[in-house]
Write a structure and sequence with these properties.
3 helices; 115 residues; mainly alpha; 2 domains
Length: 115
């Protein structure tokens, strides 16, 4: 076919112009799922967030919570590294101990900036 020849072939050349049916179906499913979750679980999710914020506040603030989680993961990882029997729960108890130690160690408050 040349540029001078204006006849069309039997094959359409508009591939990829429309989104696929699967993409549209996934978009509709995701939209409906989000709407359902927001409709039925929004208050529940908010209460979980408020509960976590209260726990962090009672633990001593976000810095204290980050220190506690960091020590917990370090202790749990060390427990996994030195554990001979993978079916025991020693690393779990080391994780809990690290969390408790991290909650007890005082984190100094950030001093105010001096002019």
């Amino acid at each position: 076919m040349t540029a001078a020849d204006k006849s069309t072939s039997g094959v359409p050349l508009d591939y990829g112009q429309q989104p696929s049916r699967w993409k549209n179906a996934l978009k509709v499913a995701w939209t409906r799922t989000r709407a359902y979750v927001h409709e039925h679980f929004e208050d529940w999710l908010k209460s979980i967030g408020y509960s976590l914020a209260t726990l962090v506040y009672l633990a001593g603030g976000y810095k204290q919570a980050i220190l506690a989680l960091g020590l917990a993961f370090l202790a749990g990882g060390l427990g996994l590294a030195i554990e001979a029997d993978r079916s025991s729960t020693g690393h779990l108890w080391m994780w809990i101990g690290g969390l408790l130690i991290g909650l007890v160690i005082p984190v100094p408050k950030t001093p105010a900036a001096k002019p």
